[in-house]
From TrEMBL:
Residues 1-24 form the signal peptide. PANTHER family: CEREVISIN-RELATED, PEPTIDASE S8. This is S8 family serine peptidase. The lineage of its organism: Bacteria, Bacillati, Bacillota, Bacilli, Bacillales. The active site is at D239, H273, S430.
Length: 759
């Protein structure tokens, strides 16, 4: 390959190897035209991760600066921007206040709304129904049913709810549903024209018998005006209740609501907050009225559980009862747009039971402008805590902050439904919560088998970073992105997530934390490493487990790995945490006059090296092969090895540095001595040159060799030593001393020189 094509290959490889899920700052799409098919074949396209390729035209993402560099190469005919086009039709929803709902576009909800413009289909339509008394069979197409007891041939179709609407009602009545064996599956009673009954999810039945009771004393016996069946995810809105509203669909299940706060016969909203929250979540879409909820018309059922009174106040006793009742109803998501100071064991245990039951518990960060560590339920372990942002993607000024914050959503100038068929505008973290609850419910509606840990993963890992890089105390992982979460859910990877730890989080020790596992990882083996030292290994017996972390000083790397029975890697998660604060690292045996003082200080600040307990560094000591791998891994961040089966007999998994040694071996960066590694042997300077060159993937030809007296061209590390010398990683001297050992100071110096080159 000529130099022209070699450099073209390198530049295109750099451009196309970037992740396709998001473009870096300043990037856009370009079309690169090569001169002819022969030119294309000279570039190994199998090595490129380009967006698309059509003969000798390529679509890539790149910055304008990258494109300007490429234009100089003779293999390229010309480069042009990849112009974007839009559909000539406009996104059409008939709700008149949709234009005020800036948050829907902000969180990328429009694609989901487009998918759910129409109301969910009645799954009972087209099924055979038999009058229990007369034996008459009809094909149900939505017509009225004159009798009060019907058998439905559901043909092994799963259903999560059946609702019956009477032609009239004169008082409380009851509906019961039985399976083909006469087993009672569900019942409900109420003074509503429509009564809803929840059915066991993930079950299929041949036939169902629907029976009306309690109408014997009515002046006129009722009949079924309508019977409706669906398979939907469930959200419990634990708030001030829900008022009837023109902009609510049949999925707001008033007959299943309960009032814990004011002893009302049903969850009537006397405050207005719960009705507002429900509108953000589930206002009927495309109905020519008001607004559109974040779920559109997706199959999601809403159950109102009233715990706040007419002044908006409630207590932990009632909230706990509502959570436990939601658990009995097998809801998927709990929406708690409420917050306050003070904790109780009762509410903490209720939240934990809900998590263990597989429910996603979503709560507001609160509006007190204080640290979330004193705010509940936001700071209870495992709660998905939501803060609010403005249309400029900055936190709303009144929002609380802290490491409990997981994700952000719109929280200011929010328009939604209110009491007495009205609409209001509000602000606060409470209003951000239903965006996230709706997204979680939508994922469950589209993927019913998705567990709560996976739902958490899909939401936070697809969030768009909007403040400091990575998670932060003001916005969590970033801004909710519904379409990106849906895309991630379609892949359904093995998931392992720390539910109470984030990258960069300070850690007061000792402490226990929650870690979650997707159902696909149950009965597999988990491994916990801190600073590349195995702390414990345990079988995964539940989706959410408690793990104790040891006392940590300074910055530490926490690596969690899940393997199968053959110790093959299934999932891994690595985070950096800050333990007990240490004074600025300065070593008493490394004076400012020491030749590598600055490099040692830099390496210490980056946590690449650690000193000894007595405040010394021992800069002139030789570095062992094991310690060298650990230091280099902290710098290069090699991938976790694909299996935890030790590659060397003398480096078992319990050896500090096991992951670093195994990763270096798997990446082809270093070799052992047949079946052993000799971890405590000192590393030679020639070995160090080989390892650094392979870590940097150096393959450029040597331009001008430096005449080391003790490195002939036949030396096994000749090329690598010369490459590092050209880069300035190795200093030019008369002798290299290839068989001499590398000192701790020398390793620090070389790593920092590499860092300077990379930056």
């Amino acid at each position: 390959m000529s130099k022209t094509y070699f450099f073209l290959f390198l530049i295109l490889f750099f451009i196309s190897a970037m992740p396709l899920t998001a473009k870096a700052a300043g990037e856009q799409e370009w079309i690169i035209h090569l001169k002819n098919d022969k030119e294309v074949k000279m570039i190994p396209s199998s090595s490129l991760k380009i967006l698309e390729q059509e003969k000798h035209e390529w679509k890539v993402t790149a910055t304008a600066e990258d494109i300007n560099r490429l234009k100089a190469f003779p293999a390229i005919r010309f480069i042009e921007p990849n112009k974007q086009k839009q559909a000539s039709s406009v996104f059409s929803y008939d709700d008149p206040l949709l234009f005020k709902q800036w948050g829907l576009e902000k969180i990328h909800a429009m694609s989901a709304l487009s998918s759910y413009k129409e109301k969910p289909r009645n799954l009972l339509k087209g099924l055979k129904m038999t009058d229990e008394q007369t034996g008459q069979t009809i094909l149900y197409e939505g017509q009225a049913l004159p009798a009060d007891e019907w058998n439905i041939d559901v043909q092994n179709m799963p259903l999560s709810r059946i609702s019956v609407t009477l032609n009239h009602f004169e008082g409380p009545w009851t509906i019961k549903i039985f399976d083909e064996h006469g087993k009672l599956l569900g019942e409900n009673e109420g003074a509503f024209l429509t009564i809803d009954v929840l059915l066991p999810k993930k079950q299929a039945f041949r036939t169902l018998r629907v029976q009306i009771l309690g109408t014997e004393d009515w002046k006129s016996q009722p009949s079924f005006r309508k019977i409706y069946g669906t398979y939907a995810s469930r959200v419990a809105v634990i708030d001030s209740g829900i008022s009837s509203h023109e902009d609510f669909c049949e999925n707001v299940l008033m007959s299943l609501g309960h009032d814990y706060a004011e002893s009302l016969p049903y969850a009537e909203d006397t405050f207005g907050h719960g009705t507002f929250v429900t509108g953000v979540l589930a206002a009927c879409g495309n109905n020519e009225k008001g607004i559109t909820g974040v779920i559109g018309n997706a199959p999601v059922d809403i159950i109102p559980l009233k715990v706040l009174d007419r002044s908006g106040n409630g207590d932990d006793f009632d909230i706990s009862q509502a959570i436990l009742d939601a658990m009995k109803m097998d809801v998927d998501v709990v929406n708690m747009s409420l917050a306050g100071k003070g904790e109780t064991l009762m509410l903490r245990e209720a939240v934990m039971k809900a998590l263990q039951h597989g429910m996603t518990v979503v709560a507001a960060a609160g509006n007190q402008q204080t640290d979330t560590s004193t705010i509940y339920p936001a700071s209870y372990p495992g709660v998905l805590t939501v803060t609010g942002i403005t249309d400029q993607s900055v936190p709303i000024p009144i929002a609380n902050y802290g490491w409990d914050v997981d994700i952000s959503a719109p929280g200011v100038n929010i328009v939604s439904t209110f009491k007495e068929n009205s609409y209001e505008t509000m602000r606060g973290t409470s209003l951000a919560v239903p965006y996230v609850s709706g997204a979680a419910a939508l994922l469950k509606a589209e993927h019913p088998d998705l567990d709560a840990v996976s739902v958490y993963h899909m939401l936070v890992r697809s969030a768009r970073d909007i403040k400091e890089p990575g998670a932060d105390i003001y916005t969590g992982y970033g801004l909710l992105q519904i379409e990106e979460a849906r895309m991630l859910a379609r892949k359904q990877p093995n998931v392992m997530e720390w539910l109470t730890l984030k990258n960069g989080q300070p850690l007061v020790q000792p402490a226990s934390h929650l870690i979650g596992f997707s159902t696909s990882l149950l009965h597999k083996q988990a491994w916990l490493f801190v600073n590349d030292t195995l702390q414990k290994s345990w079988p995964i017996t539940a989706n959410v487990m408690t793990v104790s972390l040891p006392s940590i000083k300074g910055q530490a790397s926490v690596q969690t790995v899940v393997t199968d029975s053959n110790q093959r890697l299934l999932a891994e998660r690595q985070i950096q945490i800050q333990g007990e604060k240490q004074e600025e690292k300065s070593f008493k045996d490394v004076p400012s006059s020491f030749w590598a003082h600055n490099e040692i200080q830099q390496a210490a600040e980056l946590s690449i090296i650690n000193g000894y307990g007595d405040g010394t560094f021992h800069p002139n000591e030789s570095v062992s092969r094991r310690h060298a791998m650990m230091m280099l891994n902290r710098f290069f961040q090699w991938p976790i090895p694909s299996q935890l089966e030790p590659p060397f007999e003398d480096v078992p998994v319990t050896t500090p540095g096991f992951l670093s040694v195994s990763s270096a071996y798997e990446q082809g960066i270093m070799k052992g001595y047949d079946t052993i590694f000799k971890p405590n042997n000192p590393l030679t300077r020639a070995q160090m040159a080989l390892i650094l060159a392979k870590s940097l993937k150096l393959d450029a030809p040597i331009k001008q060799a430096h005449p080391f007296e003790d490195i002939p061209s036949s030396h096994y590390a000749y090329k690598e030593i010369q490459q590092l010398t050209e880069l300035g990683v190795v200093t030019k001297a008369s002798r290299f001393r290839p068989n001499g050992t590398v000192t701790r100071a020398q390793l620090c110096a070389m790593i920092m020189r590499v860092r300077a080159i990379q930056s």
